[in-house]
Amino acid sequence: MKQILVTGGAGYIGSAAVKALVEKGYEVVVVDNLSKGVKELVDKKAKFYKVDLIDKEALDNVFQENEIDAVMHFAAYKAVGESMENAVKYSDNIKGTINLLDMMVKYNVNKIIYSSSAAVYGEPKYNPIDEKHPTEPCNYYGFTKLECESLIRWYGKVHDIDYVSLRYFNVAGDSGLGYIDPNALNIIPIIMEAATGKRDKLIIFGDDYDTRDGSCVRDYIDVNDLVRAHILALDINSSEIINLGTSDGTTVKELVKAATDIVGKEFNYEIGERRKGDPAKLVASNKKAKEILGWKPEKDIKDMLESTFKAYNKNL
Ligand SMILES: NC(=O)c1ccc[n+]([C@@H]2O[C@H](COP(=O)([O-])OP(=O)(O)OC[C@H]3O[C@@H](n4cnc5c(N)ncnc54)[C@H](O)[C@@H]3O)[C@@H](O)[C@H]2O)c1
Question: Per residue, what are the HEC states of the chain?
């Protein structure tokens, strides 16, 4: 396998994957509509197309001009809140995936690694969440991710395409590209903004949950570990759905403490009300990832905070 098409390759995770693939000697073709992605993040050795996946003709041209062997499909809109206000926009996640699968059939590309999400599970019925956990998304974004998984599975059956759907929980850390989310919605970027003075304070939503310190527990995966799992997935010969997590997890208060140590000074935070629909604990089992991919996370939460802090400092 030589040439990999990376959709969403100008985004946070996609650009890290492009960098790692190029370093491993793959030829990389990137498709991104730059709605959120940044072209400068794309490794110069990759071939870049500013194409929206819903533009089937433009996508056809990309497949025609290249000899693609496999696809890593990262492109998607991913803001949960926005997805509950604009289903029309988020339906492009589904339409774009159908177009991509159609092109794979047309050009005989028979391997896809798909960026799925913990959002497919909805409210956790137990922890750590394994791949047999019921899938009942509670927002439209999660629905689009689950729908794309189903489409990929059906195209896989009908057209003999191998797939690996990787369900991620919270991705963090820096790949070395210094990516900064301009519209921070996740806790680690928010902590960094509070710690570097870009934001007044961090609000911890509730500290009366039934967890070890009362704050919510979430599962964080370093972006480099995540990308490594994708590259391992290129080489397996079966179709799989696999969670990528630590089987453990970190509370919000633990995150704040670790960030304070790394930043070297206290920053403002306050305890706010619980947010509606926030489960106390969301942690992924990585048993299957170990068995099938021979993968386990190598970086811990301190590594993720440290590399993120460095990236924020560079951009100050
Ligand atoms: N970041 C996380 O914590 C996380 C967790 C679970 C799943 N995911 C999934 O991982 C993938 C990558 O996430 P990310 O954090 O890098 O997000 P991101 O927004 O940084 O990257 C997504 C990229 O896709 C591009 N894109 C979006 N829609 C497109 C379309 N129709 N056509 C072409 N390009 C399009 C955007 O411009 C962007 O560059 C997404 O599919 C997301 O659902 C991310």
Answer: CCEEEEECCCCHHHHHHHHHHHHCCCEEEEEECCCCCCHHHCCCCCEEEECCCCCHHHHHHHHHHCCCCEEEECCCCCCHHHHCCCHHHHHHHHHHHHHHHHHHHHCCCCEEEEEEEHHHCCCCCCCCECCCCCCCCCCHHHHHHHHHHHHHHHHHHHHCCEEEEEEECEEECCCCCCCCCCCCCCHHHHHHHHHCCCCCCEEEECCCCCCCCCCCEECEEEHHHHHHHHHHHCCCCCCEEEEECCCCCEEHHHHHHHHHHHHCCCCCEEEECCCCCCCCEECECCHHHHHHHCCCCCCCHHHHHHHHHHHHHHCC
